[in-house]
Design a protein that fits this description.
alpha/beta, 17 helices, 7-stranded antiparallel β-sheet, about 425 residues, about 20% strand, 6-stranded parallel β-sheet
Length: about 425
């Protein structure tokens, strides 16, 4: 289900009630920035994702009468003045949002998005924005690594059944396609986002027939040139020999278990000897970027990969150190820039812009003049609670992601961690921090 007004933490509502009681909903605008404190282990960069769903959430944000009545009966809010609940009935998000384009590589402390709105509005949306953006950024970043490891061979996202619920599966498929996956097995993602669908068969199809070759024939009768056969239910090499002897010419076969590299070589040899050079070999089964890299380095004859669990859960780095922090207050005709100084959780003050240069990124105050030969990464995407322009098509985001990743230093695109990408504060921001 999509995020609602109650897709938040209790303390957001408690603070909102305090701001309303003090009149700060009318006289104070707050600026928050959403960023990642540090990169997960084995990551050189992240891919910004989830903006489209974040903006949809903000545009649709309302409190229904039932939600307001339920909140009124919550013990934690029992002491709250009735004026707060009246405020909730007319609540709309009326703020401005600046954001990094989806598909853009991002580094620690760089804002993926910035919200400026009346204080209660900016406060309420913290939890939902973090959940929306963090999930897709996590999966997009993992997918980019897997696609890179595949070396130009297509990667198909097969992980819906291992995702943390149907909605997570849906947006994981979106993020994976954005970062270069060739398609998904998840039908709802195909319908919702026009992602190409891909799939073969399950072992249950083969087991439903008394003879394995009969299952292959029937599947080929049904799906013709699009038939892709799963051949590891019993003995993979025997299945390949049976296909070759039967006269079937499947577009592809999939191997999902066993020693994938050795089996792929054996199957390729059988097929090539019988004129099935055009039948592709797809590999799946507990794959990740490291195993894919080893298969390719070993010269495995493979034409594509299906990746599930490790992709949709980002198994090696399932969570980001993403935060949503107050950086600026606009009240009584003055602007006050603020920062935390907590050990290991220090923040940088002020609304910021990211300037990307060939030599690295500069994090500057939003009203500073740009450095020379630098590209701004944050742009206004929502004003007064409404989008500035329609969302770009997912295929356009996908192209941007491919081009932006290709522009990174080659060392950053490798799977192993190396020298961190340089991100430095501008002189003005550094002085303000000091």
């Amino acid at each position: 289900m999509p995020a609602t007004s109650l897709s938040t933490d209790l303390y957001e509502l408690a603070m909102m009630a305090g701001y309303v009681a003090d009149g700060r909903h009318e006289r104070t605008r707050a600026t928050f920035e959403l960023f990642v404190r540090r990169l997960p282990r084995n990551r050189n960069y992240l891919i910004a994702a989830g903006l489209e769903q974040a903006l949809t959430y903000l545009e649709d944000l309302r409190f229904t009468d039932d939600e307001v009545e339920w909140l009124r009966g919550t013990p934690a809010l029992a002491q709250v003045d009735e004026g707060f609940f009246a405020y909730l009935r007319g609540f709309r998000f009326t703020g401005d949002v600046w954001a990094m384009a989806e598909g853009t590589p991002v580094f620690p402390n760089e804002p993926l998005l910035r919200v400026t709105a009346p204080f209660p509005e900016a406060q309420l949306v913290e939890t939902a924005l973090l959940a929306i953006v963090s999930l897709q950024t996590t999966i997009a970043s993992k997918a980019a690594r897997i696609v890179h490891a595949a070396g130009g061979r297509p990667v198909y996202e097969f992980g819906a059944r291992r995702a943390h619920g149907p909605e997570a599966a849906l947006f994981a498929a979106r993020a994976a396609y954005m970062s270069g996956c060739a398609g998904t097995s998840y039908v709802e993602a195909g319908r919702r986002f026009r992602i190409p669908l891909s799939g073969t068969m399950a072992h249950s199809w083969v087991l439903a027939f008394e003879e394995e070759i009969a299952s292959f024939r029937r599947y080929s009768d049904l799906f013709g040139d699009r038939a892709a056969l799963l051949i590891d239910t019993y003995d993979t090499a025997d299945a390949a020999r049976a296909i070759a002897a039967s006269g079937l010419r499947p577009s592809a076969v999939r191997i999902d278990s066993g020693s994938l590299g050795a089996l792929a070589r054996e199957v390729r040899g059988i097929f090539d000897a019988h004129g099935l050079q055009d039948t592709r070999i797809l590999l799946s089964g507990d794959l990740d970027e490291h195993r894919i890299r080893r298969l390719i380095a070993d010269g495995t004859p493979v034409d594509g990969f299906g990746v599930g669990t490790s992709l949709v859960t980002s198994e090696d780095a399932p969570a980001l150190s993403s935060v949503y922090k107050l950086v600026e207050l606009h009240e009584d005709r003055r602007t006050r820039r603020v920062r935390k100084r907590s050990p290991s959780k220090v923040t940088w003050p002020g609304a910021k812009q990211i300037w990307r240069r060939p030599s690295g990124d500069v994090l500057a105050l939003a009203d500073e003049p740009p450095p020379e030969t630098a590209q701004p990464l944050i742009e206004l995407v929502m004003q007064d609670g409404r989008r500035i322009s329609p969302a770009p098509p997912l295929d356009a985001i996908r192209r941007h992601c491919r081009e932006a990743c290709a522009a990174l230093p080659s060392a950053l695109r490798q799977l192993d961690t190396g020298t961190p990408y340089p991100v430095r504060p501008s002189d003005t921001l550094a002085e303000l921090i000091a």
